[in-house]
Amino acid sequence: RSTLGRARRRKYFSTLEANSAPGIRTLSEHRAPHPSPASRQDHIHTGVRGRCSGHAARSRYESLQISDDVFGESGDDSSDNPFYSTSGDSDSDNYIAEVGEEDQQQPQHHHHQKRGDKEGSGHRGGSGGGGGPPGALSRSQAEEEGWTETLQDVTVPPFKETYGPAQKMTSSATALDFFQLFVPDNCIQNMVTQTNMYAKKFQERFGSDEGWRPVTTKEMKAFLGFVTSTSVQRCESVLSIWSSGFFSNQSIALKMSQARFEKILKYFHIVAFRPSQGSNQGLYKIQPFLDSLQQSFSCTFRPSQTQVLHEPLIDEDPVFITTCTERELRKRKKRKFSLWVRQCTSTGFICQISVHLKEGTDCLATLKNKPQLHSLVAKQLCQNISGKNTIIFTGPSITSLGLFTEFSKQDIYCCGLLSTRKSDCTGLPQNMLVCSSTPAQRGQSRVMMKGSMSLISWYNKGHFRFLTNAYPPTKQGIIIKRKSGEITCPLAVEAFAAHLSYICKYDDKYSKYFIFHKPNKTWQQVFWLSVSIAINNAYILYKMSEAYTVKRYSRAQFGERLVRELLDLDDCSPTQ
Question: Which superkingdom, per the lineage (predicted)?
Fold first, then answer.
């Protein structure tokens, strides 16, 4: 498991035991020490029902055939559905832990408030003894707006596309061939041209550099290979390749001298000069590359019907996080940009990226931590999927009635987790957003509908609320826990947990393979992060191609092969 996932989410582990991530129960967890014949017979019937329910839950996601080791170390494929993990330390349900933690604290706050009520603290409105979030509707207002407890069936039209690679790759395709689906030769040639232009302009202004000579296409590929190697070696400094320390790599260090590499690194540019006009001036040095990358993502892969909008885990490398002190962690420079993605839940393929600066005159700082920013991000990420009957899953910061209603007019169906602190709750019934004074039973749920939109409040050692128009509220699902057994839930809750489980696994394993090179300039950070995403997408296409049946490379082996091919080294064993 990725140390980054454990380190960043350790504080949530206490709330994860009961949260909604599907799992498989083992026989030992159900075995009683000395069962009586009667209890043994009951246990057999319970086990049969459990297996039947588990089989039914599996069948709902049988189209998700990408293997659990898609980013693992093994080169062998596994046909097991990754949603039903058997690993004891699985933290695949961490995505919703924060909301559960928030709602678990609400009952405690409610008990403290009762003491205040005796002292005349009667300012909290709404039913259930708790005030609702801003924009929430009272019971009478909700009825006037059309919210009702009468449930009706909801049907999503069939998906209008077939998901998978858009072009067929031959069995002889190399790692470089898959990578160049996203970073082709003309893109690398543009890097060569812009780097040489910047070097010339720089020296005209600050004096000649005797050690510099114009970079070539072959050298630029090698440059990309050296930096990409940090994702395989997992070291922060690319210069460690030429050192005599632990991360030295003499097999590739001979391809280029350290002095030459540092010269290229000094002048490396995607866009040498600021354009006179542009919609995103703060990212002008990287925007053409992002546009090209986005177009290649769309042309090479068709995502499945179910997709997720989220921020991937890209903050820090896992080795630093687990070894540094708290003081060092506070001193660590934070990213000056945020990256959101739209990601296929069947394969992990990132279909679209959206980058926003956190500082600067052209950034979205005025919308920071406000629903407007997240609504804008969601619209940008979904602008190419209207009319296809896609189902998207969203986190609390994006989920809102207004956005989901707008998406439904574009034939985009949604299922999102709600948070009374982070979500825009405008137009939602207040009585569904506050904790009731009556204790809820585990697996108990309440549902209200407005047209095809359902607002679900589901209890599982904490209240979890969902807004959806993609799943019928009349149908039930199950959450399978190793210790707790089966927990009933609406079908939307089961679907959300299942799809987000896979994305969290992708995040955990992706953190092991992003490029660790840490440049100071924001545009270079965005560039290398985008290249990391492209390499992961390339590996997903590789696993879905005929080339994978010939040489079954793991993600680590695929990265090593790509580095050697970029450096134009002789063919060798993938683990050499």
Answer: Eukaryota
